[in-house]
Amino acid sequence: MPAARSASGPARWGLLSLLILSAFSHPAAGFGAAKKAYMREKVRKMFYHAYENYMAHAFPHDELKPLTKTFTDSLSELGNLKLEYLPQNYNGSALSLIESLSSLVVLGNFTEFQRGVLWLSDNLTFDVDARVNLFECNIRVLGGLISAHILATDTKSRLDHGLYKNQLLNLAEDLGQRFLPAFDSPTGLPYAWINLKNGVMENETTETSTSGCGSLILEMGALSRLTGDSKYEAVALRALRKLWSMRSSLNLLGTTLDVVTGEWIECSSGIGAGVDSFYEYLIKAYILFGSDEYWDIFHSAYLAVQKYFRHGPWYHEADMRTGRATYWQLTSLQAFWPGLQILVGDIAAANSSHREFFHVWQRFGVLPERYLLDHDMLHPTERYYPLRPELAESTFYLYQATKDPWYMEVGESIINSLNSYAKVDGGFASIRDVMTMQQEDHQHSFFLSETCKYLYLLFDDSFLADKNYVFTTEGHLLPIRSSWHEKLPESYISNWTSIKNGNQGTHASAMSLQVCPAMFIGGNITPWVESACHVPDSRVDHRCITDDDCGIDSTTCRRRTCSMAGYCGLWLFIL
């Protein structure tokens, strides 16, 4: 793991490149250049096998059915478990093409990227009588269009700028405009479903999820910054603020709620389905837009998660009102959490959870959708694996933070499993049952936008060199731009914590001081330096007079106490 280096001002920005995923240049010892190139090409072939089969058998419909080499117009089905109100004359929105555009740029295929951009510019329309899930349409379609527009206007995209005149941004703005009626509720919380042509349907369900209300700010905020129209960001921020105001006294939120009454429907919560991207978008909005409001909410929410959900390397679910455990289960969506922890510097905790997820992957060959930890058994019905990207995503983040070649070995294992169990002649099929490896006739669009992208970047991150991006929850790239910030990068990107220095109060960034759990210099172990989301001790030598001089421990999230010897407890770790 890399050692910490002191930095200030603009240098801190470069030091924190793991946070914003500028590429590192250090080679992975034991995983040579030839092996990395081999694995990179293996992922490239996976992507094109999936993409070319989609283009041949499903385009311009939404997603590919790889077993029968046909298609599904699935945009109106995403999140629609009961398959209600399906449109009659909807023929797809080229969803998988939209999702593929940023991946094509990462892979360096500017010719195909231009072809896709121009086709969408000439043919895509949202004037369709189709009821869609706001959250899914936001992260997949709106996010995909905004990211592709940004990449298209980059001079390095090699796009013919005589042909491209912001058509994708115009489409994104049209879609964002169609989202606005969803926010017209008594609480300002958006309805989960919106008809693209007719707005909110009569007698529409008022139930939605925490993710559905709190995970709109990146795409809607970016749309406002690109168009100069603040209304998109304003409604998303209003919803986020309302959602946070509904938290319990423990700073926990439930899973589902009513957008009309503002009442919770499901009070059990965790870091998995229905809540996951709420946490993700808080920290990423802080990075992208620089508002302390996002950090303050995230900081409180993150500490609550560590206090009430964490059990060793696992995270169970708990009642938002009492903090008492409700469900002890692993869900595949939870595998994003180690990647989030890397963004705030909790490397040790991220590594611990990631290894447990990977052990489950090794046990079954892929990651089951739900595993009952208290019974040590698969969930009786949710035994599938729909090619989800979360474990690959966290593996990529952890490698960027540590440069430990073991994470490349994890990536190799994931790639081999996907090729062994999911690859078919017509693309990549989801796994219906991880016990039998029975396949399902569906290739989700996120396999192209996320799974393949993170695996490729694990073995070749050259695209990220000298670039600062935030990845949305769908893997789409949004650049960090000073013009989008409320303040200077060194101020917004750090968790500024007051440190006592004699009679002077100074500020130090816990992120810029982040190191691995222990660092050896000349045979000595340096003191543990707190990660960004926690509170360091008042003195760098960890001496104290009262408990108030001690901070919050980074792995237990408990306040340290001042010992009889005058030192804050739990600050030194030996590996």
UniProtKB/TrEMBL annotation:
Span of the signal peptide: 1-30
Family the entry assigns: Belongs to the glycosyl hydrolase 47 family.
Descriptive protein name: alpha-1,2-Mannosidase
GO annotation, cellular component aspect: endoplasmic reticulum quality control compartment; membrane
Keyword Signal in record: yes
InterPro entries registered for this protein in UniProt: 6hp_glycosidase-like_sf, EDEM1/2/3, Glyco_hydro_47, Seven-hairpin_glycosidases
Keywords: Calcium, Endoplasmic reticulum, Glycoprotein, Glycosidase, Hydrolase, Metal-binding, Signal
Domain of life: Eukaryota
Originating species: Elaeis guineensis var. tenera (Oil palm)
Cofactor(s) in the UniProt record: Ca(2+)
Compartments in which it is found: Endoplasmic reticulum
Biological classification of the source: Eukaryota, Viridiplantae, Streptophyta, Embryophyta, Tracheophyta
First-tier enzyme category under EC: hydrolase
Single annotated GO MF: calcium ion binding
